[in-house]
Amino acid sequence: MLDEGQHEACVDAWLDRAARNLSAEAFLQLFEAALTALWKQTLTTLGEVTLTAIAGRVLHNASERFPLFSSLKVERLKGLQFAELREHVRAGHDAGLREGSRFVLVEFLTVLGNLTAEILTPELHAELSKVALPEAVPPRVTAGEDTTS
Q: What CA–CA distance (Å, rounded) separates 120 from 19?
């Protein structure tokens, strides 16, 4: 079995590559795409009820450490519901967004790996590594940065 460190390494590598210099709203869009991709990749194998229970537990754990994530919902027939979380982020209430997103992804991969004896892990890591925002999403500009080039 893999240890949690390998899931952390996968998520961290992906975040370093895909999430560099994104605004909070763009980062949330990326996180939503990643979690949705992982959800879809496991739905057929585990089924809606099992996957909903896993995601519910992961989100519960995340919301204890990162209160913002109490607004991310999972519904059995609709899957992951980001609308309320998106509204919080748009309103500027994004404390813990990046750290909480990392926690959710690592926890989700860890639970799925433990449940399936890591059989799905290579496929899920590969799927995560493919998630990126379209080029149209602008990066966050920091003070003193030249954007005219």
A: 24
- The model scores a pTM over 0.90: no
Please give the torsion angle defined by the CA atoms of residues 92, 20, 54 and 66, in that order, rounded to the nearest 10 degrees.
-40
pLDDT of residue 135: 66
Rounded to an integer, the average pLDDT of 130-140 is 70
